């Protein structure tokens, strides 16, 4: 019986060494380098500017059925919790929100990084004046839904090379308004505001950070 137990013990130890060998030897495979896309990868496909895409919105959601792409640099980070399950990209014409339904997006989409979005199959919607690209919301509750299935994300959103971060537009508080509304040319763009004053009230949204 002792011999049988000894043989089993040796067998289990060997199996354990085979399973956890890299822990002892350090022989891990090198991690694959994430592919970065360029304009050449989308050669032959129509490119629209972000302003052109936003102009397609009239009075309701727009479901894209044509093959085209937009590209822009990431201008936001959800690291501090200021953006919830989305990030903004901006080109030379305008900026727009991409509704990737995940948190901790700052780990994947870096500020200043170029991002390509294949729009066929996605939906352009509006939320409080800000244009967003996401999925069609079949519930009708919102004009676009989050793209939260990784397979769909991988088919539509492609990371490009890092660039210099977009410089914010320096604006005075009141100059952003046209009457009581923010001017369309500034919505979605990265801006720095001076001369802002709070009204007699505070509005706050709080989210739990699942990464903590």
Describe this entry's structure for a reader.
The protein is of the alpha+beta class. Helices cover about 15% and strands about 25% of the residues. It has helices spanning about 1-20, 20-25, 50-55, 150-155, and strands at about 45, 60-65, 70-75, 85-90, 95-100, 115-120, 125, 130-135, 155-160, 170, 175-180, 180, 190-195. The strands form three sheets. Strands 1, 2, 3, 4, 5, 6, 7, 8 and 9 form a nine-stranded mixed beta sheet that branches. Strand 4 and strand 5 form a beta hairpin. It is globular and about 60 Å long.
Please outline what is shown here.
The chain has 212 residues and is of the alpha+beta class. The chain has helices at residues 2-19, 21-25, 50-54, 150-156, and strands spanning 46-47, 62-63, 68-74, 87-90, 95-98, 113-118, 123-127, 130-134, 157-162, 169-172, 177-178, 181-182, 191-194.
């Amino acid at each position: 019986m002792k011999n049988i137990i000894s043989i089993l013990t040796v067998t289990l130890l060997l199996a354990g060494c085979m399973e956890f060998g890299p822990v002892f030897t350090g022989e891990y495979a090198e991690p694959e380098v994430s592919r970065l896309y360029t304009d050449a990868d989308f050669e032959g496909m129509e490119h629209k500017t972000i302003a052109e895409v936003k102009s397609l919105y009239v009075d309701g959601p727009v479901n894209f059925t044509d093959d085209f792409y937009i590209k822009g640099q990431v201008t936001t980070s959800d690291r501090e919790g200021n953006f919830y399950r989305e990030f903004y990209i901006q080109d030379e014409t305008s900026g727009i929100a991409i509704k990737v339904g995940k948190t901790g997006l700052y780990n994947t989409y870096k500020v200043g990084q170029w991002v390509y979005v294949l729009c066929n199959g996605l939906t352009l919607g509006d939320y409080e004046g800000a244009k967003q690209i996401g999925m069609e919301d079949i519930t009708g509750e919102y004009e676009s839904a989050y793209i939260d299935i990784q397979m769909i994300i991988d088919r539509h959103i492609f990371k490009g090379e890092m660039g210099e971060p977009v410089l914010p537009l320096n604006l005075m508080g009141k100059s952003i308004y046209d009457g009581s509304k923010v001017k369309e040319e500034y919505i979605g763009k990265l801006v720095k505001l001076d001369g802002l004053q709070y009204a007699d009230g505070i509005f706050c949204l709080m989210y739990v950070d699942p990464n903590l």
